[in-house]
Amino acid sequence: MEEQKKKVILSGIQPTGIFTLGNYLGAVRNWAKMQEDFHSAYMIADLHALTVRQEPADFRKRILSCYALLLACGVDPEKSIAFIQSHVPAHSQLSWVLSCNTQFGELSRMTQFKDKAAQHADNINAGLFTYPSLMAADILLYQADLVPVGVDQKQHLELTRDIANRFNGVYGNTFTIPEAYTAQGAKIMSLADPTKKMSKSDPNPNGCILILDEPGAIVKKFKRAVTDSDMEVCYREGKDGINNLMTIYSAVTGLSMDQITADFAGKGYGDFKAAVGEAVAEHLRPVRERYNDLMNNKDYLVECYRKGAEQAERIARRTLDKVYKKVGLLAK
Ligand code: AQP
Questions:
Q1: What are the tens digits of pLDDT across the range 317-331?
Q2: Which residues of the chain have pLDDT under 70?
Q3: How does it assemble (predicted)?
Q4: Rounded CA separation 128/106 (Å)
Q5: Would you tell me the crossing angle of helices 298-327 and 154-171 to the nearest 10 degrees?
Q6: Which CATH number does 8-186+297-327 carry?
Q7: N or C: which end of the chain has fewer CB within 10 A?
């Protein structure tokens, strides 16, 4: 692809835990592929994670380990801007201006707010409510053309587009209107309850595969995966558990659903679960090894995230200055 035609892409992941197989197959693995074709910026969304109370010492360590995971999953700081959100103050600064251009009614309609408010009834903070304005700032600062988002984030991206269009209408052309990039990977469901998505913060450790889990633990979790009372390995409505395992197996082996069905014809679920467990453990081995190497070289990580912050800051600052000027703030 010609350099000047490359589109800008931005995405992020919250440091709310070790990435799951869902985060990896559904998002981060694809970011690594996309960096070849796009001007890409990927961030550890630490400010977003503050909407849920974090234990400070753990959180600080987790931010670094999630940054290492981002690189271990293939995000290359030579090809992408790989940074930590709080290192670029323009995110919070633009977020405020955008909050003043977002309606209470719009934020009230966000289903993630309703879900998270129900999950954390003891801490329904203002940040949880204004989360979409910060997300809009993340995206609009980089004039992103495309944002890879899962289905769960589509409503937020729609709101980002509304905010950007409104701002452009009132103050003149300022922001690129981003589009959802839906060529993301599959949605991976919990192994313990295949009707729920696999989540880092799931309190049930059997439901999710963490990408740093040891091979033995991975195989064991797949053996325990909830399936059905049928015997056939095939992708069909009503077979949520098997459908999920087939989706995972297909994502790590490249086999089609039909090939998988043919390979396991006449074999029981036990054989299939063991095969999925082994394939996933093998697939994640290099990620785990790269992560361990990176964590043994913290100086390199610091160098990378500082460089990422400088690169991000340069772009973000330009947009923020433009916005401050447009809304009439007095320059220093
Ligand atoms: N189960 C999943 N299948 C496919 N994609 C997934 N993603 C998350 N879970 C799955 C994608 O991972 C990216 C980063 O997500 P995030 O950390 O910003 O927040 P999330 O979507 O809320 O992920 P978790 O793991 O469920 O975190 P917690 O438990 O903290 O809420 C996104 O692109 C997301 O679509």
A1: 999 999 999 999 998
A2: 1-4, 183-184
A3: Homodimer.
A4: 14
A5: 40
A6: 3.40.50.620
A7: C
By the 8 A CB rule, do 181 and 9 touch?
A: yes
Catalytic member of 6, 79, 187, 200: 200
Which residue ranges make up each domain of the chain? 8-186+297-327, 205-292
Dist. CA 171 → ligand 1 center (Å): 34
| Domain boundaries 205-292, corresponding CATH code | 1.10.240.10
pLDDT single digits (tens) 124-158: 999 999 999 999 999 999 999 999 887 778 899 99
**pTM more than 0.70:** yes
Residue 35 labelled as part of a binding site: no
Q: Relative to the CA of 19, which ligand 1 atom is closest?
A: 25
Angle at 325 between CA 320 and CA 328, to 5 degrees: 125
* pLDDT at residue 230, rounded to an integer: 86
